[in-house]
Amino acid sequence: MFQQKKPEQALRVEEVPSHIAIIMDGNGRWAEKRGMSRSEGHKKGIETIVQVVESASEASVEQLTLYAFSTENWKRPKSEVETILRLPVEFLKTYLPRLMAENVRLHVIGDIRPLPVYTRQALKYAIDRTKNNDGLQLNFALNYGSRNEMVEAVKELYREVQEGKLSLSELNEEHLSKHLYTSGLEDPDLLIRTGGEKRLSNFLLWQLAYTEFWFSDVLWPDFSNQDFASALEDFGKRKRRYGAV
Ligand code: FPP
Description:
Strand content: 5-15%
Number of strands: 6
Helix content: 40-55%
Distance between the termini: 35 Å
Radius of gyration: 19 Å
Largest sheet: 6 strands, parallel
CATH superfamily: Decaprenyl diphosphate synthase-like
Shape: globular
CATH class: Alpha Beta
Bound molecules: farnesyl diphosphate
Strand order of the largest sheet: 3-4-2-1-5-6
């Protein structure tokens, strides 16, 4: 998509967000509007993932974090949960060679222990295969919940204080960040939410403190390269002050 732009329209590298996080909302509605099952909407959503990964790579985005399954999503009908948790398997079966060709490194954030063994195995295999790639890092947020992530971090810090490894007066933001699933990742520069809702749904609450938000009414399966380009273009115009003037 960026290759098609005239040079004067292309984003300068310093305007490209290093880390983009996306809440991929609207799969269910996309399917229901077509008389299809919600699961079909999630399957269609995979195609958008493939396209966005490619666009993000082309734009030299360094990190892309996709909210694929939240800790609250277990409340959905069993068959829908099963479909979503099988999608990483199908996605990787079809697209791992493409991720390799595009030099993408796969990473997961969230508590993957309760996920089915087939999901964990597919992820483990792909993470291992892509570990030496140094292009875009693709982070799947699976069984991820921000509040739970923070509670777990606080428990670990409490243990460290109790064991005398850390003093309460030293404890700072960096310590907490290091105990989150996102340890080692930069905070997102841009958050995109598709599907028309304007909420965070327990996604990266700590990490989004200074992130720029971009909301779209477009349902995730319809989210196009042009929509992604619009988000990046809008980001390029933002003035980030981080609380300063
Ligand atoms: C939100 O739409 C979407 C999800 C809860 C699941 C998103 C998952 C994928 C797109 C696939 C994940 C695949 C991989 C490879 C990690 P919704 O169902 O809430 O839509 P609605 O708001 O229209 O009901």
